From TrEMBL:
<feature type="compositionally biased region" description="Polar residues">
    <location>
        <begin position="344"/>
        <end position="353"/>
    </location>
</feature>
<feature type="region of interest" description="Disordered">
    <location>
        <begin position="330"/>
        <end position="367"/>
    </location>
</feature>
<keyword id="KW-0812">Transmembrane</keyword>
<dbReference type="GO" id="GO:0009279">
    <property type="term" value="C:cell outer membrane"/>
</dbReference>
<dbReference type="InterPro" id="IPR039426">
    <property type="entry name" value="TonB-dep_rcpt-like"/>
</dbReference>
<keyword id="KW-0732">Signal</keyword>
<keyword id="KW-0410">Iron transport</keyword>
<keyword id="KW-0472">Membrane</keyword>
<dbReference type="Pfam" id="PF00593">
    <property type="entry name" value="TonB_dep_Rec_b-barrel"/>
</dbReference>
<protein>
    <submittedName>
        <fullName>Putative tonB-dependent receptor protein (Outer membrane salicin receptor)</fullName>
    </submittedName>
</protein>
<comment type="similarity">
    <text>Belongs to the TonB-dependent receptor family.</text>
</comment>
<dbReference type="GO" id="GO:0006826">
    <property type="term" value="P:iron ion transport"/>
</dbReference>
<dbReference type="InterPro" id="IPR036942">
    <property type="entry name" value="Beta-barrel_TonB_sf"/>
</dbReference>
<dbReference type="InterPro" id="IPR012910">
    <property type="entry name" value="Plug_dom"/>
</dbReference>
<keyword id="KW-0798">TonB box</keyword>
<keyword id="KW-0675">Receptor</keyword>
<feature type="domain" description="TonB-dependent receptor plug">
    <location>
        <begin position="56"/>
        <end position="163"/>
    </location>
</feature>
Length: 787
């Protein structure tokens, strides 16, 4: 009996053990599945696009967000690199010039400092006024937010295209940091890093640095050096102090030095076969490729910028009062000299150029944000912005003697704006909310331009080494004009957005917004012809009136597959009025002082219709996929630009032309796959690709409404293959190994993996067509250390 009892007891114990073991295994399996499912779910992305912290899926606005880790890991180093991962955004650069920002067809191709950017570029909510300063390094960032559509209510400046806000990683009381170092093609060397932590009980600090340089990827046959070379250095220091439990202060100081090795473009000459007017044909003929040998003179271009920001936050009984004060200034100088091929069939122009500029800007914003715990929430504030610049540019031709000349222009502009803004949101039901905002802006601008010139073919210098100084001239001016202008504008803009929370995973919204782009001035005094002089027309500075945009957008933000898939979409219609367009004025006869140059005009209206689709999917815990598609049908309406070609100035009809720099179709895909191992670390494979369909680089090319006058005026000036770009793909790839403790990551990156050759800018005949090409394939290896 005891034996049977023991057997029965043992059997019962074994059965219980098996049952408990099975339950434990099921529980473990359930926990592992739950953890796996949690790992698959998309993390909530917090943005401040509406000046308060919100999940990006809850904001009724088309937004792209690029995390700071993405910027670091994908090797995004310049401000315009975000176009790789921000659907619908384009920021192409000609060499090292400022990015030509475009969103949904809205952008500017005007290189002049007098131009107002239609897209707002912000650093920690501070607007960058001058387009020439919108190219800068990006490092140690929290994230980048790209807002599509007019931003005329809550942001520092009214803009018609949208806004890009680069948000620095703030100091934290927990110690953290990183270093990223790499070596690559063309003698490239790059290193950046950041370190932050507690300084004392109440204060935390963070310091970040950046360096990037390379020698260039093409041989300059005029100098024997590789080009275009480049070097850039930057430093940022921040302090965050918790003065009290309800009041904190953030102070930021930043420095930046940019030193590109000069201009880089291929001269495609207008004679048959790409020959110049002396019979020389470059090896690339009419079809240059990035990396081909080229001819350019010695040059120098250095820009230094520095600035400071103070951001104060007070918690006032649930509301938050914020003050942002900033000051920035820049100083730059450049020199350039002509470079010629060794074969001379005639006497070529020997030219030099020199420029100096200085700018400064100051801004102050104060806003009060309500608590978010009730049906009514609101934001109100005041904004002040002031900027000024001075520019001194000179050029001269020394040979041949029949073309010798000298010209110099001094420009100075001051601008000041004041704004009052407010936005209110009311939640009528759990599923319906209405948001409305208004902004009143008052702007004043004044400008002075002084231009001097000497007669062509009769200019001599007593001191060629300092030719830019007027004291170096032996020849008196035959043109000396100083003109001033001033104007002011005020405008009320705003938006209204009803939104419907269909369920917890779907938000639908309709948004109407009115955008406004400030008026301004031309960058030069137009040269008057004899008829105008006889009629008593006096020299003047052209005024460009404000540009307006009425935007209508219907959007849907949704989450699917148990939180693993986000799908967002939008359809929009833009009514674009008084468009500020920079119209190229070609000079195919190579006149020394052509009657007109590249200048802005309010020459057109426009209509834009579009569709956007975006998806972010995490099908497994180790695979992330992103894809986006945009369709933009943008055409000019009532487009009558004033063109001047070789002394003939006439208004022509270009109605029906497609917007320039606006592909009708854009598609992007981004994938990352992680391969964890049991015995080692994790292998990471990633790639991103962008497709852009056919696009033009000049609005006033021959187009849909060309007539006999247009054909006779244009001739072969605008309708050239390098004034447009066919469809192309740009892709990047990366492979990395991350150690088990996730502190060290070794990587190899390939940018422009297919080595695509594509045009990013082309200028009308003068009589050569300077063509700027995209960067060829670039490979680098490096390491990221986190601590």
């Amino acid at each position: 009996m005891p034996f049977k009892s023991n057997v029965l007891y043992a059997a019962l114990l074994a059965t219980a053990s098996i049952s408990l073991s099975s339950q434990a295994q099921e529980s473990k399996k359930t926990n592992e599945e739950a953890q796996s499912q949690d790992a698959k779910r998309l993390k909530a992305v917090v943005v401040t696009a509406q000046k308060r912290e919100q999940s990006v899926q809850s904001v009724p606005l088309a937004i792209a967000v690029i995390g700071g880790d993405q910027v670091l890991e994908r090797g995004l180093s310049s401000s315009n690199d975000v176009q790789r991962l921000a659907p619908g955004l384009s920021g192409q650069q000609s060499g090292f010039s400022r990015p030509r920002w475009f969103i949904r067809g809205i952008g500017s191709n005007d290189p002049n400092l007098t131009t107002e950017s239609p897209l707002g570029v912000y650093n920690d909510e501070v607007f960058t006024a001058l387009t020439s300063l919108q190219s800068f390094p990006i490092f140690d960032l929290e994230r980048v937010e790209v807002l599509r559509g007019p931003q005329g209510t809550l942001w520092g400046k009214n803009t018609t295209a949208g806004a890009v806000n680069y948000i620095s990683r703030r100091p934290d009381f927990a110690t953290s940091g990183y270093v990223r170092a790499s070596l690559g093609d063309w003698g490239a060397k790059a290193i950046q890093g950041g370190l932050g932590g507690a300084i004392n009980e109440h204060t935390a600090g963070r310091i970040a640095f950046y360096h990037n340089s390379y020698d260039g990827y093409a041989r300059n046959l005029a100098t024997g050096n590789d080009g275009p070379s480049f070097e850039e250095n930057a430093l940022r220091v921040q302090w965050l102090t918790n003065v009290t439990d309800t009041f904190n202060a953030l102070v930021k100081v930043h420095l930046h030095k940019r030193e590109p090795g000069g201009g880089y473009s291929y001269q495609v000459h207008s004679e048959p076969g790409g020959a110049d007017r002396f019979g020389f044909t470059p090896a690339y003929g009419t079809n240059p490729k990035a990396g081909d040998d080229y001819y350019a003179g010695e040059s120098e271009d250095i820009t230094n910028t520095e600035g400071a920001l103070v951001k104060l936050n007070w918690a006032l009984g649930g509301a938050t009062l914020t003050s942002i004060s900033s000051y920035d200034e820049s100083e730059g100088h450049s020199k350039s000299f002509s470079g010629h091929p060794p074969t001379y069939t005639g006497t070529r122009d020997t030219t030099s150029g020199r420029g100096e500029d200085y700018s400064r800007q100051a801004s102050q914003e104060v806003r009060l944000v309500s608590p978010q715990d009730g049906p009514l929430t609101w934001i109100g504030g005041l904004h002040f912005f002031r900027y000024s610049f001075v520019q001194d540019s000179a050029s001269a031709t020394f040979a041949p003697s029949t073309r010798s000349n000298y010209s110099r222009t001094w420009r100075g502009q001051d601008a000041e704006s004041y704004a009052v803004f407010g936005s209110v949101k009311y939640e009528f039901t759990d599923s319906f909310r209405l948001n409305a905002g208004l902004r009143w802006t008052d702007e004043d601008k004044d400008i002075t331009i002084h231009t001097v010139r000497t007669p062509t073919g009769a200019t001599t210098f007593n001191n060629v080494s300092s030719w830019w100084n007027t004291a170096a001239l032996n020849t008196a001016f035959n043109y000396d004009e100083a003109v001033s202008a001033a104007d002011s504008w005020n405008e009320v803009t705003g938006d209204i957005t009803p939104e419907w929370q269909i369920n917890r995973d779907a938000l639908a919204y309709f948004r109407y917004a009115r955008g406004y782009r400030s008026g301004g001035f031309g960058a030069s005094i137009p040269t008057l012809n004899s008829a105008q002089i006889a009629a008593g027309v006096v020299p003047y500075i052209p005024v460009v009136e404000p540009e307006y945009l009425d935007a209508y957008e219907l959007g849907l933000k949704s989450t699917w597959l148990d939180g693993t898939l986000n799908v967002n979409s939008a359809v929009f219609y833009y009514d674009h009025k008084d468009i500020q367009l920079n119209v190229q004025a070609p000079n195919p006869l190579n006149l020394i002082n052509p009657p007109s140059g590249s200048f802005s005009q309010n020459a057109s209206q426009g209509e834009i219709k579009g569709l956007e689709l975006e998806a972010h999917w995490v099908p497994t815990a180790n695979l992330q996929l992103r894809a986006a598609y945009s369709l933009v049908d943008a055409r000019y309406v009532d487009f009558y630009p004033l063109l001047s070609v070789s002394g003939v100035t006439q208004t022509v009809d270009r109605s029906g032309n497609r917007y320039f720099r606006t592909p009708k179709h854009q598609f992007s895909v981004d994938a990352q796959y992680r391969i964890p191992t049991d015995s080692a670390g994790t292998y990471i494979l990633s790639t991103d690709w962008v497709y852009r369909s056919h696009q033009y680089y000049d609005a006033a090319r021959q187009g849909a409404a060309q007539g006999e006058v247009a054909r006779a005026l244009d001739g072969n000036v605008y309708q050239r293959e390098w004034q447009e770009q066919g469809a192309y793909w740009i892709g990047n790839a990366r492979a990395a190994y991350l150690t088990r403790d996730e502190r060290i990551e070794y990587f190899i990156e390939v940018q422009n993996a297919a080595d695509e050759n594509y045009v990013v800018n082309a200028t009308a005949a003068s009589p050569s067509y300077p063509v700027s090409l995209g960067t060829p394939r670039f490979v680098q290896v490096g390491v990221i250390t986190r601590f």
